[in-house]
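Appendix B, record 7
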Amino acid sequence: MVKPSLATPQRNRQVKDYLSVHFCDEPLAVASAKEYSEAAGLKNIHVPECVGRMLSFFARITGAKQVLEIGTLGGYSTLWLASGLVPEGKIVTIESEESHAAIARENFSRAGESERIEVHVGLAIDQLQTLIQRGAGPFDLIFIDADKDNYPAYLEPCLNLSRKGTLILSDNLIPKRGEIGGPDPRDNEAVGIYTFNQMIASHPRLESHLFPTLVGGSGRIDALGVSIVK
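Structure tokens (predicted):
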């Protein structure tokens, strides 16, 4: 009999592979963006296919017309979001690195989505403040997938760009390392994630839950945060 401690990682991989095969088919434009980004030298740190499918579902279910994304990278998750938008929908996506933004713009052009996606380049906290000052929003859906140590700093600006019923999605809310719920204080990323989790769990304007996800080749357990603005 295989010990549970040994069986669990193998089963995680099997479940992840099963979901990928049966429920996570990539639209052609999304798959093409992934290939182009990898060929251009971007790290393979975009959302997994099944998380991308969830993004598309949430955009479609909410009927989102205005979407804000924090963390563009090569535009892979952006195009998943676009696949769930209504025809007149628009996405504002924020990317800190101009080289990444250039790859994303090319992917959006190749996908025929340039008119619906607006790329802002700069530090996310600065770009969020600029959007607030310009009176942007309210956004129907916000997706956060950027530098984890700064997640706590992004929450209030995102709420300022929201309305009652806005859906805020936050990726990677279970750190890769360390004890669950008890991060090493020297690990800024883990500290940021758990601080953010506590914020969305207790914030008076939010109702939140973490949905487990399986990521990476090993099927490591992660989580997508889903928060509804009250």
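Remarks on this record: The chain has a mean pLDDT of 93. Residues 8-229 form a domain with the Rossmann fold fold (CATH 3.40.50.150).
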